[in-house]
Amino acid sequence: MEMESMFTEQKWNILRELSSEKASPLQLAEKLNTTMANISQQLRLLEASNLVKKEKIKNRDKGKPRTLFSLTHDHAYLVSAMNNFAAKKLVHLNEHQKATVRIWFIEDEELQHKAEKLYWNLLDALDKVDAIIADQGNKALLVLTKEREAVREISEKTGIGVKFISKTEAERKMSEEGNILVYRRG
After folding, report:
1. Residues 179 and 103 occupy one common structural domain
2. Rounded Cα–Cα distance for residues 72 and 114 (Å)
3. What percent of the chain lies above the pLDDT cut of 90?
4. Does the residue 129 lie in any domain?
5. Are 47 and 102 members of one domain?
6. What span, in angstroms and rounded, lies between the C-alpha atoms of 18 and 43?
7. Domain extent at residue 118
8. pTM value?
9. Whether residue 68 is found in the same domain as residue 99
10. Distance CA 28, CA 13 (A)
Protein backbone atom coordinates (compact mmCIF):
# COMPACT_ATOMS: atom_id res chain seq x y z
CA MET A 1 0.00 0.00 0.00
CA GLU A 2 1.31 3.46 -0.88
CA MET A 3 2.27 5.54 2.15
CA GLU A 4 0.34 8.58 0.88
CA SER A 5 -2.91 6.68 1.54
CA MET A 6 -1.87 6.35 5.18
CA PHE A 7 -2.00 10.09 5.64
CA THR A 8 -5.56 10.93 4.73
CA GLU A 9 -7.17 13.40 7.12
CA GLN A 10 -8.93 10.70 9.16
CA LYS A 11 -5.83 8.52 9.54
CA TRP A 12 -3.71 11.57 10.29
CA ASN A 13 -6.15 12.59 13.06
CA ILE A 14 -5.89 9.10 14.56
CA LEU A 15 -2.07 9.22 14.46
CA ARG A 16 -2.09 12.68 16.06
CA GLU A 17 -4.33 11.44 18.89
CA LEU A 18 -2.18 8.35 19.45
CA SER A 19 0.97 10.50 19.54
CA SER A 20 -0.11 11.82 22.93
CA GLU A 21 -1.64 8.73 24.53
CA LYS A 22 -2.91 5.20 23.99
CA ALA A 23 -6.60 5.03 23.13
CA SER A 24 -9.37 2.55 22.47
CA PRO A 25 -11.37 2.61 19.24
CA LEU A 26 -14.36 3.99 21.18
CA GLN A 27 -12.27 6.80 22.68
CA LEU A 28 -10.92 7.67 19.23
CA ALA A 29 -14.41 7.63 17.68
CA GLU A 30 -15.66 10.01 20.38
CA LYS A 31 -12.68 12.38 20.14
CA LEU A 32 -12.79 12.45 16.35
CA ASN A 33 -16.59 12.61 16.12
CA THR A 34 -16.96 9.60 13.83
CA THR A 35 -18.31 6.07 13.91
CA MET A 36 -16.70 3.02 15.48
CA ALA A 37 -16.89 1.26 12.10
CA ASN A 38 -14.87 4.04 10.46
CA ILE A 39 -12.28 4.11 13.25
CA SER A 40 -11.95 0.32 13.23
CA GLN A 41 -11.37 0.29 9.47
CA GLN A 42 -8.77 3.07 9.68
CA LEU A 43 -7.00 1.34 12.59
CA ARG A 44 -6.81 -1.94 10.63
CA LEU A 45 -5.12 -0.12 7.73
CA LEU A 46 -2.73 1.73 10.04
CA GLU A 47 -1.91 -1.53 11.84
CA ALA A 48 -1.28 -3.34 8.52
CA SER A 49 1.18 -0.55 7.63
CA ASN A 50 2.94 -1.02 10.99
CA LEU A 51 2.20 2.55 12.10
CA VAL A 52 0.03 1.52 15.06
CA LYS A 53 -0.17 -1.52 17.27
CA LYS A 54 -2.91 -2.90 19.48
CA GLU A 55 -2.61 -4.15 22.98
CA LYS A 56 -5.20 -6.49 24.47
CA ILE A 57 -6.02 -5.83 28.10
CA LYS A 58 -7.10 -8.79 30.21
CA ASN A 59 -9.65 -8.81 33.02
CA ARG A 60 -11.09 -5.37 32.35
CA ASP A 61 -14.23 -4.21 34.11
CA LYS A 62 -17.44 -4.05 32.11
CA GLY A 63 -17.54 -0.88 30.07
CA LYS A 64 -13.76 -0.41 30.13
CA PRO A 65 -11.69 -0.68 26.94
CA ARG A 66 -10.32 -4.15 26.21
CA THR A 67 -8.04 -3.03 23.38
CA LEU A 68 -5.79 0.01 23.30
CA PHE A 69 -3.92 1.33 20.28
CA SER A 70 -0.62 3.21 20.24
CA LEU A 71 2.09 4.19 17.78
CA THR A 72 4.52 1.37 16.95
CA HIS A 73 7.62 3.58 16.68
CA ASP A 74 8.65 7.17 16.21
CA HIS A 75 8.47 7.78 12.45
CA ALA A 76 8.76 10.63 10.00
CA TYR A 77 7.43 10.51 6.47
CA LEU A 78 9.88 12.55 4.44
CA VAL A 79 9.14 13.99 1.03
CA SER A 80 12.00 15.74 -0.71
CA ALA A 81 11.61 17.75 -3.91
CA MET A 82 14.77 19.67 -4.76
CA ASN A 83 17.11 20.04 -7.70
CA ASN A 84 18.75 16.74 -8.58
CA PHE A 85 16.97 14.86 -5.80
CA ALA A 86 13.35 13.86 -5.34
CA ALA A 87 12.40 11.07 -2.96
CA LYS A 88 9.96 9.99 -0.29
CA LYS A 89 10.54 7.64 2.58
CA LEU A 90 9.11 6.51 5.92
CA VAL A 91 11.94 6.75 8.43
CA HIS A 92 12.21 5.15 11.87
CA LEU A 93 13.72 7.92 14.02
CA ASN A 94 16.46 7.71 16.64
CA GLU A 95 16.72 10.31 19.42
CA HIS A 96 18.96 12.70 17.46
CA GLN A 97 16.75 12.52 14.38
CA LYS A 98 13.66 13.23 16.50
CA ALA A 99 15.31 16.39 17.84
CA THR A 100 16.32 17.42 14.33
CA VAL A 101 12.80 16.93 12.95
CA ARG A 102 11.33 18.95 15.82
CA ILE A 103 13.83 21.72 15.10
CA TRP A 104 12.75 21.74 11.43
CA PHE A 105 9.22 22.55 12.61
CA ILE A 106 10.34 25.81 14.26
CA GLU A 107 8.84 28.48 12.04
CA ASP A 108 11.29 31.31 12.67
CA GLU A 109 14.41 30.50 10.61
CA GLU A 110 16.77 32.35 12.96
CA LEU A 111 15.43 30.54 16.02
CA GLN A 112 15.53 27.27 14.05
CA HIS A 113 19.21 27.83 13.20
CA LYS A 114 20.05 28.71 16.81
CA ALA A 115 18.21 25.63 18.13
CA GLU A 116 20.03 23.34 15.71
CA LYS A 117 23.43 24.85 16.54
CA LEU A 118 22.76 24.70 20.29
CA TYR A 119 21.50 21.12 20.16
CA TRP A 120 24.48 19.81 18.19
CA ASN A 121 26.95 21.68 20.42
CA LEU A 122 25.24 20.24 23.50
CA LEU A 123 25.47 16.63 22.31
CA ASP A 124 28.33 15.76 24.66
CA ALA A 125 26.50 17.43 27.55
CA LEU A 126 22.95 16.20 26.88
CA ASP A 127 23.14 14.03 29.99
CA LYS A 128 23.11 17.32 31.95
CA VAL A 129 20.07 18.72 30.11
CA ASP A 130 16.52 17.78 31.05
CA ALA A 131 14.78 19.68 28.23
CA ILE A 132 15.26 22.22 25.46
CA ILE A 133 12.20 24.15 24.36
CA ALA A 134 11.83 26.58 21.46
CA ASP A 135 9.54 29.36 22.67
CA GLN A 136 8.44 30.59 19.26
CA GLY A 137 6.32 33.47 20.58
CA ASN A 138 9.28 35.02 22.40
CA LYS A 139 11.86 33.72 19.90
CA ALA A 140 13.85 32.19 22.75
CA LEU A 141 15.52 28.90 23.58
CA LEU A 142 14.64 27.63 27.04
CA VAL A 143 16.77 25.07 28.87
CA LEU A 144 15.84 23.01 31.91
CA THR A 145 18.98 21.78 33.67
CA LYS A 146 20.42 21.37 37.15
CA GLU A 147 23.92 22.00 35.81
CA ARG A 148 23.63 25.50 34.42
CA GLU A 149 27.34 26.21 34.24
CA ALA A 150 28.07 23.44 31.74
CA VAL A 151 25.23 24.60 29.47
CA ARG A 152 26.06 28.29 29.99
CA GLU A 153 29.64 27.63 28.86
CA ILE A 154 28.45 25.98 25.62
CA SER A 155 25.87 28.72 25.10
CA GLU A 156 28.50 31.43 25.45
CA LYS A 157 30.99 29.54 23.25
CA THR A 158 28.43 29.30 20.42
CA GLY A 159 27.04 32.80 20.94
CA ILE A 160 23.52 31.43 21.41
CA GLY A 161 21.68 32.90 24.35
CA VAL A 162 19.47 30.61 26.38
CA LYS A 163 17.09 31.21 29.23
CA PHE A 164 17.26 28.75 32.11
CA ILE A 165 13.87 27.72 33.44
CA SER A 166 12.40 25.74 36.30
CA LYS A 167 10.64 22.40 35.91
CA THR A 168 7.28 24.09 36.52
CA GLU A 169 7.93 26.69 33.85
CA ALA A 170 9.17 23.98 31.43
CA GLU A 171 5.94 22.00 31.89
CA ARG A 172 3.89 25.13 31.29
CA LYS A 173 5.91 26.10 28.21
CA MET A 174 5.68 22.55 26.78
CA SER A 175 1.89 22.72 26.98
CA GLU A 176 1.62 26.15 25.34
CA GLU A 177 0.58 26.07 21.72
CA GLY A 178 3.31 27.00 19.28
CA ASN A 179 6.20 26.00 21.52
CA ILE A 180 8.27 23.06 20.39
CA LEU A 181 9.92 20.57 22.69
CA VAL A 182 13.26 20.12 20.92
CA TYR A 183 14.74 17.65 23.38
CA ARG A 184 13.70 15.86 26.55
CA ARG A 185 15.88 13.45 28.44
CA GLY A 186 14.32 10.05 29.04
Report:
1. yes
2. 31
3. 85
4. yes
5. no
6. 11
7. 95-184
8. 0.84
9. no
10. 9
